[in-house]
Amino acid sequence: MYRAPVEEIAHTLKSVTGFGKALDAGRFGDLGEDLVDAILAEAGRFASDEIAPLNEIGDTEGAKLDDGVVTTPAGWKQLYRSWIDGGWNGLTGPEDFGGQGLPMLMSVAALEMWNSGSLAFGIGPTLTMGAVEALEKHASDELKAKYLEKLVTGEWMGTMNLTEPQAGSDLNALKARAEPVGDGTYRIFGQKIFITYGEHDFTDNIIHLVLARLPDAPAGTRGISLFLVPKFFVGDDGSLGARNDVFCSGLEHKLGIHASPTCTMIYGDGKFGDEPGAIGWLIGEENRGLACMFTMMNNARLAVGMQGVAVAETATQKAIAYAKERTQGRAPGFSGEGMSPIIQHPDVARMLMTMKALTQGARAICYSCAEALDMARLTEGDEAKAWSERASLITPIAKAFSTDIGMEVASLGVQVHGGMGFIEETGAARLLRDSRIAPIYEGTNGIQAIDLVTRKLPLSGGDTVARLIAEFKADAEAARADNSGALAGVADRLEAAIADLEAATAYMQAALAEGRQPDALTGATPYLRLFGLTATVALVARGVLADAQAPQAAARAALARFAAANFAPETAGLLAAATEGAASLKGAEAALA
Amino acid sequence: MYRAPVEEIAHTLKSVTGFGKALDAGRFGDLGEDLVDAILAEAGRFASDEIAPLNEIGDTEGAKLDDGVVTTPAGWKQLYRSWIDGGWNGLTGPEDFGGQGLPMLMSVAALEMWNSGSLAFGIGPTLTMGAVEALEKHASDELKAKYLEKLVTGEWMGTMNLTEPQAGSDLNALKARAEPVGDGTYRIFGQKIFITYGEHDFTDNIIHLVLARLPDAPAGTRGISLFLVPKFFVGDDGSLGARNDVFCSGLEHKLGIHASPTCTMIYGDGKFGDEPGAIGWLIGEENRGLACMFTMMNNARLAVGMQGVAVAETATQKAIAYAKERTQGRAPGFSGEGMSPIIQHPDVARMLMTMKALTQGARAICYSCAEALDMARLTEGDEAKAWSERASLITPIAKAFSTDIGMEVASLGVQVHGGMGFIEETGAARLLRDSRIAPIYEGTNGIQAIDLVTRKLPLSGGDTVARLIAEFKADAEAARADNSGALAGVADRLEAAIADLEAATAYMQAALAEGRQPDALTGATPYLRLFGLTATVALVARGVLADAQAPQAAARAALARFAAANFAPETAGLLAAATEGAASLKGAEAALA
Fold it and tell me: Which of A229, B14, B483, B528 has its CA 20 to 30 A from that of A257?
């Protein structure tokens, strides 16, 4: 059973990112280390004791649809209620609307724990938080006054309605339409698919944010507007009125996260109300909906990255516990009676160290992204711009690398369990099933890689990525300067990996500058992986030196050496794959015919 | 829907392995190319038209247990009946007992196709074929006379009963016991778990091969004997008599291959017969059961390797079909109206090429293993020994590399489908679920890697592995000598990969010679991967030159170049990981505490 690794999370937050120093310097106002620790401990307790125990029933029962009504698994409604009663939904929400205004760093740490408890639970609030952010930044004061506080507290949940059958990664193809009523509202018509928590029994109302086209809107993504469409109309006194013309027509039968209802939503079918059309209110400007939606989406991408970290952590804990208990064979050097715990077999230990090191690397990458988001808010001018661009740069890596390793680690977890891993009751297979969605939703990992290469590497003429790489170099230098032997071999290997990252980065930048788009696009995925692995080696090493006297320092050092010895050498191959360019696919049309 | 790639299979059989030349030289007697082609075409038709359409219902209905009776999904019993009526079960079976005595090469090709149709179907006959082989090699003439023909034709199925709750990878811990009755039979007592097709409704009788200990048998694996335990007793006239004291007490609820009943089998519980004890007959000598079982197991390992190839092929076909149909965005250079088929996006094409190249590499590795098994039977003396050792060497690579890539390819297949990939009805997720067992059963892939390094590399003082690597070098030289440009860049990259393979091999051999077992064990898994990837690059290239005038040559060359550019560079990192030795795990105990 999952136990929140509060200590390691606190260490990563405070010592691998600059959060600890910023706290000491008073950058986060009244927030002090004691409060941070107390919040983490309580979040950890809630995730371990309240969420995790409901994950299995969530999977086996799943969400159910009956005549438009979605029922979540036994205990889940109460779980959500205790969770919002604990104030967790409003952790980072605006203080003016009942939120606690805490840093994103606290949010990602908590998100990690909720999702380790259950990915199917964690994804719901992620969307509400996205809706809060979009409303806060783009909605009118009237809309804010009516909806924001209840979304911040979690009394209502929010959803994100982008996808249509013909419009997934490509929102140009979006067809849902919005017709102005004349009174400032719009009638929305269309079908949306894959809507996470589009309908459920957690809350009395659900606030849908919906992308649709106005009449005569320009084609493509410049003709998309964002609307707020409540399930039930809300009176000026906050009371719930009539049902809006939107309903859930179907739930997907999915590989995993069964408790999370994935809905087909029908807008404007005439099922409710006097005349067809779901009534919506415009958020932000007409035809600027995509920009508003991206406010939600960027943070959702980091949140999905946290799902990768989260599932990896749970899988690792589970596999380690099993490997300590299960005995088979006699490991080299084993001097006990009978069979060894399988954790003593080198091949099993290699799997577990791989799992643990990838998890810690992805965690540190995601937390660094949250740090950049926080610092962008706390700083101004060039400094704010630099932090903001850093967050933009890291976001696709946080999303894609973390979710890729989430799946890899979950799969290794199954393998460590041997035959038991394939049996559903063991729970290892469920983690693999659950993990498989994260590389897909909120922009597939291929889209993330393309975003990284084509939109993020060029930021500030390449300075943004250069500054991040410079920090990895500083990590390598610090490792070299350390005389304790704890990081033996790390500096050389990290430096070699960084050299590969720089070479691949230069290749991508040149390809873009010279208009060789296909060369950049072809190698984007191996490039992102190269970036993620190099960051992993750097950040895991950084964690050792950041608190070299800690009782955990030896354990962290073993992980850092393992990462350097086993992940850093992969970068040479990734560099080759990333820089082969379009030549890699020459003749592919014939090969794939 | 799966269409058997008969042409590519025939090409790989005849031109990548030496089967074509051996056929021409009359090494396989009357068997000629026309008959080979006809059998492949008919097997392909059966797999595509009969098996594949029943895979989905197999998954959704699954096998069901009610009071000891197992019912397979709708249509499956009839499927099995048509399959044995087609003579497929006896393809390689001994001609004296109703088999067709065809080469193993034909068997693996057919196995690939059955398993592409359905892994849950393919695994059943695999065990029957193993039972046939064990009986043929080790059983008394009486047992052969009574059981062999019906197992060869498939009128009865066979099972393999090794695993017990405390004895999985480590059979030393086996507890099932056998008591001599005094009349040449034994009473068997014990519980076996994870017994594939241990109970079902396909056949009127089921012949269990069961490992158990005689009284006073030595401890460990030298005290294990193999017994034949029929579900129903068989009269001398072949008629079925009373029920033996064995039954299925439970079915596992698994991640995948739901139609394949995974049984807990109870022997000697007194449920059937006058007194407790399932009656069994000894196969081979007392206390030599493991050797007999290994006869089954080695070929079963290759057969499971074929499952990896099979699921990879199906997943690749499915993903390519989807990527041609689904349109999103505009790929660079796309000049059509509207959105591009996603196959034109470089990142999607990269995934598909990766899938296709890994599949073809694993196929060629497995077929090479079958070739070695066939040639070992057709040759004598040193030549036979060399072929036999080659089969031993390749078996763990065929099993582990193919099943690892089977899972990777199935997972990429989900990714290509985007959101639809996570929806069960699409079928891509089912392939991932099904594929996940193959790296586990018949010896986990970690066990395969250890077998490769510790038992196979030392064969004939290292000559066995050196000879195989020499053939890869010849492939590299042939690629260099080719002036057509079809294999541009392949020779250099393949040679670099081979150099890494040689260096890693030398490291492993030295570690073993110097008694540094932990060094060898720690790097075994990356070593096996290094071997598999190098073999993939060599064998895919070999396939191009073997039939350079074929209409498919350009497509094959594109795949060979892709493999060389993207897989060969991985070997440097794998060499580093494989040769870091036990140092890699220094401090792991603390890190995994």
Answer: A229
Q: Quick check: is B311 in a domain?
A: no
Whether residue B165 lies inside any domain: the answer is yes
Spans of chain A below 70 pLDDT: none
Query: Interface pTM (ipTM) of the complex?
Result: 0.97
Please give the torsion angle defined by the CA atoms of residues A237, A239, A240 and A241, in that order, rounded to the nearest 10 degrees.
-60
Q: Which helix (H) or strand (E) holds A113?
A: helix A104-117
By Cβ distance, the residue of B254, B320, B592 closest to A423 is B254
Judge if A58 and A171 occupy the same domain.
no
User: Do B440 and A418 meet the contact criterion of CB atoms below 8 Å apart?
Assistant: yes
Q: Which residues of A touch B350 (CB under 8 A)?
A: 522, 525, 584-585
DSSP A359-406: HHHHHHHHHHHHHHHHHHHH--HHHHHHHHHHHHHHHHHHHHHHHHHH
pLDDT in tens, B537-592: 999 999 999 999 999 999 999 999 999 999 999 999 999 999 999 999 999 999 99
A332 to chain B: nearest residue by CA? Answer: B518
Chain B residue numbers touching A562 (CB-CB < 8 A): 584-585, 588, 591
3-class SS of residue B336: coil
Tokens 């999905």 belong to: A304
Active site residues of A: 442
CA distances from A470 to A89, A240, A467, A499, A535 (A): 36, 54, 5, 11, 11
User: What is the rounded distance in angstroms from the CA atom of residue B365 to the CA atom of residue A378?
Assistant: 58
B interface test, pick of A422, A525, A544, A589 with most B CB neighbours within 10 Å: A422
**Are A138 and A185 within one domain?**
no
Instruction: Determine the pLDDT at residue B337.
Output: 87
A41 and A108 co-located in one domain: yes
Q: From CA B145, how far away is CA A41, in angstroms rounded?
A: 70
Reduced 3-state DSSP string for A306-318: HHHHHHHHHHHHH
What is Dmax (Cα atoms) for chain B? 83
Q: What residues of B are in contact with residue A341 (Cβ under 8 Å)?
A: none
Q: Are B89 and B125 in contact (CB under 8 A)?
A: yes
Q: In this complex, which of A253, A562, A585 lies closest to B349 when CB atoms are compared? A: A585
Domain that holds residue A542: 445-586
How many whole angstroms separate alpha carbon A191 and alpha carbon A208? 13
Q: Are B554 and A572 in contact (CB under 8 A)?
A: no
Closest CA to A511 of A460, A578, A443: A578
Strands of B197-320, DSSP E: 206-212, 225-230, 232-234, 240-243, 246-251, 262-267, 278-283
Q: Between A and B, how many CB-CB pairs are < 8 A?
A: 272
Same domain assignment for residues A180 and A224: yes
| Cβ neighbours of B436 in A, within 8 Å | 411, 414, 422, 429, 432
pLDDT at A294: 83
Residue B102 contacts residue B263 (beta carbons within 8 Å): no
Query: Cα dihedral sign for B490, B492, B498, B501?
Result: negative
Q: Measured between alpha carbons, how far is residue A6 from residues A35, A44, A313, A410, B405 in Å? A: 14, 6, 12, 21, 36
Same domain? A121 vs A167: no
Q: Which residues of B are catalytic?
A: 442
Which residues in chain B come in under a pLDDT of 50?
A: none
Q: How far is CA B65 from CA B162, B164, B250, B407, in A?
A: 21, 20, 7, 29
**Looking at the DSSP assignment, which residues form a beta bridge with residue B262?**
B196
Q: How far apart are CA B390 and CA B372, in angstroms?
A: 6
For residue B140, the distance in angstroms to the closest alpha carbon of chain A comes to: 33
From the list A352, A418, A592, the residue facing B352 with the nearest CB is A592
Q: Which amino acid is at B31?
A: L
Total number of domains in chain A: 3
Q: Which residues pair with B185 in a beta bridge?
A: B281
